Amino acid sequence: MKPQQAEKLLHDWRFWARPNQLPPPGDWLVWLIQAGRGYGKTRSGAEYIRERVRTKQAGRIALIARDPADARDIMIEGESGLLNIGYPSERPQYEPSKRRVTWRTGAIATVYTSYEPDQLRGPQFDTAWGDELGSWKYPRETYENLSLAMRLGAPKVILTTTPKPLKILQEIIDSPHTVLTRGNTYDNRANLPRVFYDQIVNRYAGTSLGRQEIYGELLTELPGALWKRSLFVRKPAPELVRVVVAIDPATTSSEDSAETGILVGGIGIDGNGYVLADRSLRTTPDSWARRAIQAYGDYKCDRIIAEANNGGEMVSLTLRTVDKHVPIKLVHASRGKQARAEPVVALYEQGRIFHCGIFPDLEDQLCTWTPEDGASPDRMDALVWALTELMLESREKNLRFLE
After folding, report:
1. Is 63 exposed, middle or buried (0-12, 13-18, 19+ CB in 10 A)?
2. Are residues 37 and 178 part of one domain?
3. Per-residue pLDDT tens for 287-329?
């Protein structure tokens, strides 16, 4: 074999990729690769973009990652990223300041992140690659905005992810327009160092985490999570005797900030608790205060419950700037999140809490947060504050209402 032929073969993914890493046949909109760590998901995503560009099927491309660092370090500049695959003559130019990747064919890819899903409003694309959807900050909003932007030509979307128990991921799998490819870490064993298997893979083999991270199984709940999806029972609320808005305020409003959790809950004449609305969002203090007070009016609440650990009296001041007459109760977290949440989980297990609607972001967070998780469970915290006020701490007051 001549050196030029050898170099061409080395850079041509179609000749040496496994069959389930190549684009599936048929008329599909979404190709979802759901696989374990080390399977080769990133390489498959990058190669599919490269192939669409090479055959001039792609002109306007969206690249979506969890955050800017992941987009740069994995999808673009990583060992399996767009700048390091294919023939050298085919490789694109990357302009970080413009969030842009450009090929000689004229195809342009723009980088987006799950922290700012609204950036996908307005543009339109014929091709998209979303990497690690399971780790996206706002997976539902980001994916739905992306779907509405796929309006050019015969659009194709490739999603590459390790599975996480997210409702939006299950909805994508169930769609008739999705082709699902499953794979596990062992499929790519020939290309991974032995130490990876000895120290990582073998350590988690046989565990629930291993089923998810190695074998690529979509578990319905994250092992160790306090809530299970079977606990969510939907039922219209009866006559309510008390209704509150609970707020878990974020301390900042930058793109990597936590959301401000805003949950509306009530207690019915039957003595059961009802989750009425999820108004959570990531925004400025003035905006979340207005949203909470709007919920207070919409549901004829009797007070706002707000966590005061971060910001203290500033939380109360922010709310009263919008409405100086709104009744506020500040609560302080003297115990850890797990200790505060467990009595509320017990209420769910006793069949005493009902959801008046579908709250996918709240329910996903409840089923994926574990006590070891370092993330801030904003919606969960607000839910716990609301139900604690209604069902636990104010028991005597609620009994008087029921009389």
Report:
1. buried
2. yes
3. 999 999 999 999 999 999 988 766 567 888 889 899 889 999 9
Question: What is the residue range of 137's domain?
Answer: 3-213
**Cβ-contact 185, 37 below 8 angstroms:** yes
Within-domain flag for 264 = yes
CA dist 158 and 178 (Å) reads: 10
The answer to whether 107 and 82 have CB atoms below 8 angstroms apart is no
Residue 400: per-residue pLDDT: 47
Task: List the CATH number of the domain containing 286.
Answer: 3.30.420.280
Judge if 235 and 333 occupy the same domain. Answer: yes
Do 277 and 207 share a structural domain?
A: no
Query: CB-based contacts of 4: which residues, under 8 Å, 6+ apart?
Result: none
Phi, psi of 123 (to 5 degrees): -65, 165
> In whole angstroms, what separates CA 59 from the centre of its chain?
28
Q: Comparing C-alpha atoms, which of 1, 22, 21, 8 is closest to residue 88?
A: 8
- For residues 223 and 227, give the distance between their C-alpha atoms in angstroms, rounded to a whole number: 10
pTM of the model: 0.61
The values of phi and psi at residue 183, to 5°, are: -160, 165
pLDDT digits (tens, 9 = 90+) for 186-210: 556 566 556 655 555 555 555 555 5
How does DSSP assign 223-242, residue by residue?
A: TT-S--GGG--B----SEEE
| DSSP line for 241-276 | EEEEEEEE--S--STTSPPBEEEEEEEETTS-EEEE
222's tokens = 């994250």
Per residue in 78-128, pLDDT (tens digit) is 988 999 998 888 899 999 999 999 999 999 999 999 999 999 998 999 999
CA nearest neighbour of 292 among 266, 331, 323: 323
147 and 84 both lie in a single domain: yes
Which of these, 400, 250, 245, 402, lies nearest to 328 by C-alpha position? 245
Enter the DSSP assignment of 150.
B
SS3 328: strand
CB atoms within 10 A of CB 186: 15
3-state SS assignment for residue 114:
coil
| Interatomic CA distance for residues 331 and 165, integer angstroms | 31
